[in-house]
């Protein structure tokens, strides 16, 4: 069955999230905002899109910081860089590729910000027709744990790299922050798809009941398919920019 995705929700402050959906989404919003990769704003239980100023200022701020830190590192180590063309080329290439990839990432966030909000609101619509209330606590716990475990796995690698370097610059720090940002976006995608799988599993179990409303079940299934399609739209862009 072909699914045509529409955006039935108007992006306005009236987009209030249910209590359980807010608990599920809150880790995503906090962590991604912390790494300058927010997909939406959540204030007082309402989900709204991030403004263009947020993306422009974030991109400009990180870009200025990267250029400034690279300039300082070059100034401090100018003699070594003059003697090692390979190291200088690596540094310039890393800065250029990071700036381009992060810019592409910001553009995708702007283009698909409506899709990200529509996905969350579609998940809320599914939640109202497919009961996963008993699983919410586990979902929330694993949302937090997934980010924490990913960060813990990165610490040894980052620590060993720093210990092996003669100097540590802001460029190294910026590079690792960008890696954390991209990895956290993958975790976000994994947790969203895991949640959709939970919905699909509960929906499958519910149709085994002797008494159920066929029309409501078909509508819930349609919503699940649309959520999967919205997921594909949002995260295909993230994967391509990473």
TrEMBL record:
The chain crosses the membrane at residues 52-69, 89-111, 139-160, 180-200. Keywords: Membrane, Transmembrane, Transmembrane helix. This is Gustatory receptor. The gene is HaOG200686. It comes from the Eukaryota.
